[in-house]
Specification:
GO terms for molecular function: ATP binding; D-alanine-D-alanine ligase activity; metal ion binding. Its EC number is 6.3.2.4. It catalyses: 2 D-alanine + ATP = D-alanyl-D-alanine + ADP + phosphate + H(+). Pathway: Glycan biosynthesis; Cell wall biogenesis; peptidoglycan biosynthesis. The protein is α+β, with helices and mostly antiparallel strands and 371 residues long. The protein folds into three domains: 125 residues, Rossmann fold; 68 residues, ATP-grasp fold, A domain (Dna Ligase, domain 1), CATH 3.30.1490; 134 residues, D-amino Acid Aminotransferase, Chain A, domain 1 (2-Layer Sandwich). It has 13 helices and 14 strands. α1 packs across α13.
């Protein structure tokens, strides 16, 4: 396997999780540099522009990083792009990296156009190794409806669910409401392709359900409806290609006035919730969660890393699979890096292992193209 020296870090993105990605990128870039890599950050704006980021790293977390970057690029002599650099996506990526051939792309992106196979497909077209799940596994894992349907064929427990399509919500919402109401109130709604709890709703009656379905459908063409299950939220950090090793489970401990772990609680409120690692659960519950996580990881054929989330009843008698995140957060409050730190894997070593897993997966997935 070749040596990894030059690592492009992609951050930002055309996604509702753009700001979270920038915060993750700050941690990841620092860690990759500490691991000894030559790091080349490239930001993707909300409008889809790709910009080389050469400012002080702390600027990456500022809301106006795009304006600051454009002003910086305007001041320096950035070489004009030639037809050669436009000859292929790979050539253009090399141009963005100042003519450097990158050995691997680290995806510090979250949400749509990041975890759904879109960016993975581009990088596979460019024949550039990248970290994390491949195109197919990313697409299936990002789509919570597809993931539920796949898990349904296993004996891994999950809550009942109804898949609502935007077209049906727009044209025959009464029928959709009737279908969802069989779950019983309260009901929890979330975009099938979404993350960081953006566009999620707890609804208690038909009137709220009608309005929330319309609003949730603005974030994706499918909405997943489930019973609102008041439980402990426990998460498992995984590493590996196809077969996972798992860190100790962590728990999202919500304050008494927080019903569920929404975007505000995750990223805005200072005291809405905290991460407890290890989770205060029985040894047998910990083992069962880790076993379920390993099975889900293999079932979805995940490469690199993921965080797999579960609901656990207060008395620990019930466990339900919730969802999987193939590019988990690396912010200062994110569970994934902290869980592995508890296992003795410091951030630079963790990122180095993720990069090496990415290159290993690239080598394993090569296909013959000449006939």
């Amino acid at each position: 396997m070749k040596e990894i020296n030059n690592v492009m870090v992609l951050f930002g993105g055309v996604s509702t999780e753009h700001a979270i990605s920038c915060r993750s990128a700050h941690t990841i870039i620092k860690g990759l540099k500490a691991a000894g890599y030559n790091v080349i950050p490239v930001g993707i704006t909300l409008e889809g522009e790709w910009l080389p980021f050469r400012l002080d790293l702390d600027k990456i977390r500022e809301e106006n990083w795009v304006e600051l970057t454009k002003a910086d690029l305007a001041q320096e002599e950035f070489p004009a792009i030639s037809l050669k650099e436009l000859s292929s996506p790979k050539a253009y990526l090399r141009y963005l990296c100042g003519g450097i051939d990158v050995d691997l792309v680290y995806l510090a992106l979250h949400g749509i156009n990041a975890e759904d196979g879109v960016i993975q497909g581009l990088l596979e077209l460019c024949d550039i190794p990248y970290i994390g799940a491949n195109l197919i596994s990313s697409a299936i894992s990002m789509d919570k409806a597809y993931t539920k349907l796949l898990i349904e064929n296993s004996d891994i427990p999950q809550l009942d669910f109804v898949i609502c399509h935007r077209e049906d919500i727009n044209n025959s919402i009464d029928s959709v409401i009737a279908d969802v109401e069989r779950l019983g109130y309260p009901v929890f709604l979330k975009p099938a392709n979404g993350g960081s709890s953006v566009g999620t709703y707890k609804v208690n009656n038909a009137e709220e359900l009608r309005q929330s379905l319309i609003e949730a459908a603005e974030f994706d063409h499918k909405v997943l409806a489930e019973p609102f299950y008041l439980a402990r939220e426990v998460e498992i950090a995984c590493l590996g290609n196809h077969k996972a090793k798992t860190a100790v489970a962590g728990e999202i401990v919500k304050s008494a006035d927080v019903e569920y772990y929404d975007y505000k609680t995750k990223y805005i409120s200072a005291d809405g919730a905290k991460v407890q690692i290890p989770a205060d659960i029985k040894a047998e519950t910990m083992q069962k969660l880790q076993d379920y996580a390993k099975r889900i990881y293999s079932l979805l054929e995940i490469n690199g890393l993921s965080r797999i989330d579960f609901f656990v009843s207060p008395d620990e008698s019930e466990i339900y699979f919730n969802e999987i995140n193939t590019l988990p957060g690396f912010t200062s409050i994110s569970l994934f890096p902290v869980a592995w730190e508890k296992e003795g894997l410091e951030l630079p070593q963790l990122l180095k292992e993720i990069c090496e897993l990415g290159l290993e997966a690239y080598e394993q997935q090569k296909r013959k193209i000449d006939v």
